[in-house]
Protein 1
Amino acid sequence: MVVLVTGGSRGIGRAVVERFAAEGATLVAHFRADRRAAQDTLAALPAGDHMAVQADVADSEQARALVQTVIDSLGRIDVLVNNAGIYEEHRILETSAEEWQRIWRRTIDTNLIGPANLIHAVVPHMVSAGGGRIVNISSRGAFRGEPNYPAYGASKAGLNSLGQSLARALGPHGIYVTTVAPGFVETDMAAPYLDGPAGEAIRAQSPLNRAATPDEVARLVVFLASPGTESATGAIVDINGASYLRT
Ligand code: NDP
């Protein structure tokens, strides 16, 4: 089984890579800039044909080339985990029009259009292989609102809808699409908040009084991509320590 994890070099993506590798899969740890982190991730895995591939998923050509590189090297992609993402602050009353547009575009390109392009590139290969799994990493912010990161919230709400639409479009082809929506997770992305003055209050949002670990998210991703969970297709699964309960 070949698993492509975008942003597999660090944080949640790295934990997902490690969990799938422990199940015996061949992993592609994709990264954008930090090659060293991707290589360190691969070095920690059990032996195998694992590889690290660079691409900016916000660039449609690079996204397609990423999929083609994996197909050329490993012959198949059984599971795509759309995990790479950015979280850039842009408070509406404090952001210039130029900066506002720049961050909206960069965020939507990375967090929503990137995954859409990767799915478009990977699906024909999954259809030829008789099926596949796609797991998208969304966020609690899609439901709760992101007052200081509105493009992020919108990108993740779009990703939720993308997953639901494609679960319906691809189910007849044996391709199952699920979405995972974490709250705060202990990664580089969340470190400025968890380690800053608001850290205690953030942890207290959950009755567990802590953020999730990357490995908790990874276990859920592996579960949703495992045989026997097909009817979960279209689901958006919260993993936020009951910090925000949707009705
Ligand atoms: P990190 O910031 O720790 O890692 C982000 C990863 O995405 C890195 O591997 C990075 O590669 C890659 N990446 C970023 N932008 C691009 C791009 N344009 N093209 C390709 N790769 C890119 O993030 P987390 O592990 O915290 O987050 C992973 C996912 O989980 C994200 O989608 C995030 O929105 C979501 N999430 C995270 C939460 C949290 O609290 N941490 C909460 C809810 C959701 P490189 O290092 O090479 O730049």
Note: DSSP finds nine helices and seven strands in the chain.
Protein 2
Amino acid sequence: MTQNIFKVLGLNLLEKDGVYPSLFMGDEKSLGEGRKLTAHSPIDMKKSSVFREVSTIQVNDVLKKLNIANEKWRMIPAPKRGELIRVVSNLAREHKNELAHIITLESGKIFEEAKGEVQEFIDVCDFAVGLSRQLYGLTIASERYKHKMLEQWHPLGTIGIISAFNFPMAVWAWNAMIALVCGNTIVWKPSIQTPLCAVACHLLLQKALEQFKDFPKNISSVIVGSRAIGEVIVKSKRTQLISATGSVTMGRKIAAIVSARLGKLLLELGGNNAMIVTPSANLDLSLRAILFSAVGTAGQRCTSLRRLFVHKDVKDKVINSLVKAYKSVRIGDPFEKDILMGPIISEDSHKKMLIALKQITKQGGKIIYGGERVVKNVPEGGFYVEPTLVTIKHGALILQHETFAPILYIIEYENLEDAISMNNSVPQGLSSAIFTQDVNEAELFTSAVGSDCGIVNVNIGTSGAEIGGAFGGEKDTGGGRESGSDSWKSYMRRATNTINFSGEIPLSQGIEFEIK
Ligand code: NAD
């Protein structure tokens, strides 16, 4: 099926010695010349693709071509640019299963969720098509006679996209579809764990471009490479915005580089998401939301539920139901029907989970369910783990960290103000939720003194955001917003224009400045 999608997209990708091209620029492709980079499918840890590292010269050449293509692309009217995205959207619909297949193969998420990710790709395309006719600026009242003030939004130039393994297509689509309708060209460095997803998306876009003979070919590129290659992109003044999705560690590194050259940055970093279950909550609904948020994508979503604050009056009931539900989670090959949890991404990830489990017991926590590696009825080689439930007290240091694995900490609370304060007491600020039937509790949680996160939900879990809203978080999560609402403004530059049609030259603030 993997080779199928590439055939459908008109390319026999495998070149010399089973090595894939590392660099895709418009309809050209080139092999890297450096060391080998091998991706393994988390399903069984078998080799899924091999690339070679590209050189700095190759990267700079791509960036130069993107800058040149941008001169033409930015002059194509935005609604026409939107037409390209409409065709991309149709192709993604047509190839939904093939695209989802590659996502499952490379990221290990279950096929159902992989299809959901492609749907997110489609949704953001549709959003971008509408947006292409709505890149509105303001008109502003001028204080001066016969003057007009207005705001215009212009394309930025070339956007560098760096993405994480866990949403290998959707995150690109959030960035790329909006960046393109805004008149920018794009360079994408995907996670080295999910390179084929990136290649497939780029080829899909190229296929759509075939229908637009007057459009420049070099508006999109993919560079498969290591962090070092990511840094070459980040350092280059040829990129007018770096939009990076990944860990806080990566964000800090990139922020230092981009800030040093006074460049623009959009960061979507790690989360440490919490949910509060109050005594009035509908416990059945809460349970379903907890299960999807904590166990979905094997706990490897940036919005995965990590901390659960349960009121003391309902704690035992919630824990009993959760243990029962966790026991019935089917773990195994993510391509198989009825499997709810696939593998975690790598051995390294598993090691980090084991370290976290040790710290939990050292810090007074208790593992009440799970934590073991699963080896029966799962494909050999992959790292399959039991989803894990932990009871722990607020104040344990482990609660400050995002462990990218299915570990859920349960913490008891007595009054809502304390629970909100605990929700806010971590460095990250991505997603949060409350389950309550009490309007006062819901309002408090969503108010200025409520959750300090970028996503604040009522009677909905922490994961599974819609593309229409601005997606992102505060504090160490980086403060960036992607996808819906007015996130498009990050991909454009604002010009304030003042137009004088008075025949005189009055200065603002009434200043007199005449030669007498
Ligand atoms: P990661 O930080 O290891 O890698 C993310 C990307 O950054 C990869 O492409 C990697 O090659 C690149 N990278 C790393 N260091 C770099 C550097 N110095 N210069 C340039 N590029 C560099 O993250 P991961 O393990 O792939 O993904 C998991 C993390 O991503 C989690 O922390 C998760 O919460 C976060 N994430 C956040 C969001 C969000 O929207 N907030 C979405 C998805 C994932």
Note: The CA atoms of residues 159 and 422 lie 37 Å apart.
